[in-house]
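Example record

One chain of 185 residues, shown exactly as stored in the release files.
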Amino acid sequence: MKNSVRIWTVLTLVGLFAAGCASTRGARKDASIPATGPVAPQPTQAARAVDAEPDVRDMSPREVPELKLVHFSYDSDRLDPAARKTLQANADWLKANPAVKVQVAGHCDQRGTVAYNLALGQRRAAAVRSYYQMLGVDGSRVATISYGKEQPVCEQSVESCWSRNRRAATLEAVKVSVAGVPTLH
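Predicted structure tokens for this chain:
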């Protein structure tokens, strides 16, 4: 009985392998199309520069009273009308202060896995960054980071608390001296 199961398994695997090879044999009817499929166009150097985030690793984020945070619906990275209005005011301030670099920090409520919330927080930060760019803020001034569910402002397990944690904060990125004191621009 064991031998018949082994033979059946080997024959099945050989059949699947042969079927896979047969499906690719003769599939390339047009020699102008590469065997690996069409190659997506690569962005130009200028396009990559526009999309490049600044390196703020040697900087420290700090709150600026004029830069307000925005909130999100549960399991969403979509900007509602209230968030867009807030971000418009933030963008106006950023355009009036062109030397300021910022870091948009995405946050989530406590529900869900760490990995899921880190990804959702990053999508929220990216949505804010994209909206700033659409409003005319240079993307090379706006970095993003996700804290997922790791920095809650409220820790109770109720919706009113969770909704406060679903946010994106725009923080000024300030150079820090060797002594750990922020330096002026």
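Notes: The chain is about 40% helix and 15% strand.
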